[in-house]
Amino acid sequence: MPDIISIGEPLVEFNAESLGGPRVGSLYSIGFGGDSSNFAVAVSRLGGSSGYMTRVGADHFGALLQDLWHEERVDASRVITDERHPTGLYFILRHGGRSEFVYRRADSAASHLEPSDLPEGMIEEAKLLHVTGITQAISQSACETVFAAIERARAAQVTVSYDPNIRPAIWPLQTARAIVRYTIPQCDVVLPNLDEGRLLTGYEDPRAITQELLELGAPLVVLKLGSSGSVIATPDDYYSVPARPVLAKDPTGAGDCFDAAFAVAITEGKDPVDAAIFATAAASRVVQGLGAVAPIPTRSAVLEDVSELRAEVHPRAS
Ligand SMILES: Nc1ncnc2c1ncn2[C@@H]1O[C@H](COP(=O)(O)OP(=O)(O)O)[C@@H](O)[C@H]1O
Ligand SMILES: [Mg+2]
Question: Which family does it belong to (predicted)?
């Protein structure tokens, strides 16, 4: 059984090769997305033992995703093929410097995930379960599946890591706020980005945001700050980990890779600061390439950057 389990919605990506909206003859290159699937692939490339649970459609795109997980050595042996609902898709349209994301994911196979889909033992025998707010947002049954998975992990003393990944396009803000704030105290590690931290707490400042999220009951909060790095907060400590100064081309998937690297490191027994350094190095490689999956680095590539980062980390006085 894999050590690190992720549950959610995978998507097949159609990325426009030229500027402007779709036109006759426009070319699109196929890639992959979906935060939880990106996470599962990243765990594997970073040297972890990765397992994924979802539903895909009985279609070409589901088969393509199965091939991806197979090639990436993600254990997807328990993924369900849903005969009645399609695999979710999205298009990336390019308008000069701006990218537009167009989703075709409503009523996707993954949105029909339900608690009884969770295989016996898969969570209980893992070291870490990773869940995200996108999975809670896509449907009520998927949301219930996330809560059921968390409950089973907690009963078996399996670490629960949680990325709120709040997407206003698919989740009314009031609902997102209520569900994420309800979920946080059930998790061991919470990894929001700055926008999400602000939305959840009403505070602007990382220190105040992490303080409030700790008070909700999460023992460890990792607040991701884009090109400003991240802060790691526990009831006793507050550390700042700077980002690597790199030429960023595309931030897509940086957070998912950060989460995956953090999960790999803590399941290996690293402390949260060392885990964040490993995660920062991994995420910095993702922002330098295009797309969420293609630029995910291997473990050895990340380790080259780690020692340089370690010298820069410092605790912050309160
Ligand atoms: N421009 C950047 N340069 C270097 N590292 C970056 C950059 N943007 C993001 N990162 C790294 O990726 C991590 C996650 O990115 P962030 O944008 O904060 O999260 P999310 O993708 O969840 O919104 C950051 O904590 C940082 O380590
Ligand atoms: Mg994110």
Answer: Belongs to the carbohydrate kinase PfkB family.
Q: Which of 67, 155, 66 is nearest to 109 (CA)?
A: 66
* Residue among 284, 293, 302, 313 whose CB has most ligand 1 atoms within 8 A, to mutate: 284
The residues whose Cβ lies within 5 A of ligand 2, an ion, are 165, 193, 255
How far is it, in rounded angstroms, from Cα 130 to Cα 189?
9
Q: Which two tokens stand for residue 270?
A: 């690293």
Q: Which residues line the pocket of ligand 1, CB cutoff 6 A?
A: 193, 224-227, 229-230, 243-244, 246, 248, 251, 254-255, 258, 280, 283-284, 287
If you ran DSSP here, which 8-state letter would residue 137 be given? H
Using alpha carbons, select from 76, 143, 89 the residue that is nearest to residue 113: 143
Question: What is the end-to-end Cα distance of the chain in Å, rounded?
Answer: 42
Select the CATH number that applies to the domain covering 4-313 from these four: 3.40.1190.20, 3.30.1490.20, 2.140.10.10, 3.40.50.720.
3.40.1190.20
229: CA distance to ligand 1 center in Å? 6
Residue with tokens 């907060």: 233
The tens-digit pLDDT sequence of the chain (318 residues) is: 999 999 999 999 999 999 988 999 999 999 999 999 999 999 999 999 999 999 999 999 999 999 999 999 999 999 999 999 999 999 999 898 788 999 999 999 999 999 999 999 999 999 999 999 999 999 999 999 999 999 999 999 999 999 999 999 999 999 999 999 999 999 999 999 999 999 999 999 999 999 999 999 999 999 999 999 999 999 999 999 999 999 999 899 999 999 999 999 999 999 999 999 999 999 999 999 988 999 999 999 999 889 778 777 766 544
Residue to mutate, 38, 130, 209, 224, ligand 1, most ligand atoms under 8 Å from C-beta = 224
Residue 249 gets which letter from DSSP?
S
